[in-house]
Amino acid sequence: MRLLVFFFALCSSLYAAKPNIIVFYTDDHGFADLGIRGIEKDLKTPNLDALARSGVIAKHGYSTAPQCVPSRGGVMTGRFQGRFDLDNNKSLLDGFNQQTTLATRLQNVGYATAQFGKWHLGPMPEITRHGFRHVYAQHGEQKFSANITADGKDRPMSDLAPEAYHIDGCSKAAASIIERYHDAPFFLYIAYRAPHTPLDAPQHYKDRFPGEMPERRRAALGMLSAVDDGVGLVTSTLKKHGLTEKTLIFLIGDNGAPLKIHKTDSPLDGDAGGWDGSLNTPLNGEKGMLAEGGMHVPFLIAWPGTIPGGQVYEHPVSALDVAATAAGIVNLPVKPGELDGVNLLPYLTGEKKDAPHEFLAWRWMAQSALREGNWKLLRGGDREYLYDLATDLEEKHNLASQHPEIATRLRAKLTSWCAELTPPGLALGPMAATWNDYFDFYLEGKPAPKPVAKTEPDTAATRGWLARGGSLTAKDDILVLTPDKQSKGCFITRSQINLRPPASIHLTLKTTATGPAAIAWRNDGDKDFLPANRLPLQLQSTPDWQTHTLDLPTSARIIHVRVHLPGAAEIREIELKVGKR
Description:
Blueprint: H1 2-16, E1 20-27, H2 46-54, E2 56-58, E3 61-62, H3 68-77, H4 94-97, H5 102-107, E4 112-117, E5 134-137, E6 144-148, E7 154-160, H6 166-180, E8 186-195, H7 203-206, H8 215-240, E9 247-253, H9 292-295, E10 299-302, E11 311-313, E12 317-318, H10 321-330, H11 345-348, E13 360-364, E14 367-372, E15 375-380, E16 383-388, H12 404-418, H13 433-442, E17 466-468, E18 470-475, E19 478-483, E20 490-499, E21 503-511, E22 515-523, E23 534-539, E24 546-552, E25 558-565, E26 569-578
């Protein structure tokens, strides 16, 4: 009997040393859109506000990128994503696939792990490869890819038709996993696709926000209200099982809100890539910029009973700190230098009074930035800006000419840090026209360019692929290729890639035409597509999905790929990989 009592006491002690960890990750969620900040008066987030009061508002909380894919790669691994060549939404995922995620680390020490909602780091059926035992993944009002039901019951990994609004479904499934594992440590990654477009809030959520306002704003507020309800459901389920003081919670935005400069109130069903209705006030800039509006995000931390509540933490912190904090409190086996973040616990409890980070740094496409204390150096192509964020958080006054010695020192530090990345360098290429326009408007004070009708599809939605001789759209996580009526040939193409040999392509699709297809590629240094770099493929018109995996026989780095198809097609999976099939 004494042995049994000792065993249960030991189990209780071990559990006490392993707190539950929950990461809520919102999508294109602007800095202003937390009710407790008091910036926007039309917002209602009572559960997020309660979470903030129970813990910490990180006044200067940052994501690792102003775009979805790289920022998610950073938070999942605890390493800056430029160290493994995951620089933007079009980057290949080979580097990420070789990383050890926080989920894997926690699973290895006995945690039940579960992912909900948006993944955006490869095919959803492969999420379990990255340390998640349970998966309830979905990007919108489309089929889930799940190995559990919303009630937390196991099922084979496969498509699952939505039973509720996607945010509500993820919240219910997360609460169900807490019910299932309330007596064992768990790690939940709840990645709501909100308020990212398409703005699909059900009417009952939008009805919470009557009165005059842009419809896109109303829809975004509705989506954030659903998120708030979900946070309330999760925290109330923790309370039900006495887990509130045994659970560390983060809530972080993946990047700032996309305003498209003009905040055009376009029809909700007619501009899936437009303004998402969220706001970055008072920060300058937006998604796609390393200005504050692009990656200075909502950031809350709560662990009642361990971290004193009611705090507004003034020092800069990063989404990279999630993995490092988890590693520190759980005593995960991590090699020195393996994680780029800092264990925040001693800083948030008051044990340490200094700043967690000597500096924070970023690189995204043609932009790079470094924040040291209140000084921030921002580069965009050949442009350079220096801001004192203590007095100019809105980044309105470039002080580079007034303090050249500070700019020089920070530039040297940023250059040294960027030299550690893959590939090294302050920038990955020249500034695109879009970002030059954004820098002109936000940072130079020039008039806003006139809105231009979109001539290309949203490449984020189409995973970086474009159509030639037809149109390519994304619907229910499926890419739909529609040939032009007068087209003599139709293909999809993806450029600006960096695919090292050996290489392969994995393709799952349906076509409406039987006939010859081909995979063609252009190697680094080739000015055109050569006949030798083309693989023929015969496709059949069938109602069933057909899968093809082909090795691309080349010894050079591939920079451009085309997939030629005989007619209209639906593409469920298309992935370029390093390594043979």
